[in-house]
Amino acid sequence: MSDNVSIVIVSHSADVAKGAADMVRQMVGEEVRVACAGGTADGGLGTDVAAIMAAIEEVWTEKGVAVLVDLGGAETNSEMAIEMLGEDKGAHVAILNAPVVEGAVMAATEASGGSSLDEVRQTAEDFGA
Amino acid sequence: MTGSAAASAMGEWIEGAATIVDPTGLHARPAVKLTKLAKTFGAVVEVRADTDATWTNAKSPNSVMKMKAAHGSPLHIRASGEDADAAVAALVALVERNFDA
Known about the structure:
Chain A: Residues 4-129 form the PTS EIIA type-4 domain. Chain A has 129 residues and is an alpha/beta fold. Chain A has a single domain (6-124), classed as 3-Layer(aba) Sandwich (Rossmann fold), CATH 3.40.50.510. Chain A has helices at residues 14-28, 49-59, 73-84, 87-90, 100-112, 117-126; strands spanning 6-11, 34-38, 65-69, 93-96. Chain B has a four-stranded antiparallel beta sheet. At the A-B interface, α5 of A face α2 and α3 of B.
């Protein structure tokens, strides 16, 4: 089990979510676990609370989970998913204020060195600043 | 302890350099690799693209990405701390291998 902060990518588009996750895996490598949730349950554009929860659960670690979201509902549904995880687990999950693709790569790069969730958040949010 | 390790333990810098051979320069993927490798060392590791630029923290993905070091430019690397020798050698080797591209 890797002791690194892991990454969850949430997009309205399943293709964007999967593409961003693939990009992180290829650029940063396997030592940072990445999960994604994109699109609605019926395959349309949108986000799905249950799918976001499942993605967070898939890579959850006490070290922390950094969630990257694209627009509007992706953020509110992610907040809801984190709430539904319960306080204990949800306390180790943070939604980062950073662009999905760039933020995910920077967050994963920072996470690969064993950085804390706060440090990972800082790096992703400082990108482009 | 070798002479240089003793020197770096006293807060001095071990330095090295290698030329960036990738036609695109130090682009995103190499920048990520450099940062990841630098993070594996306890030493303070810094890089700069040419002799008159300020030193950049090699462990900071943002800073390394922003350097935009160009093709053909020497990348200077310095480290200070217990494993400074190994850090400089590893980073120089990574640049010389063209980041395993």
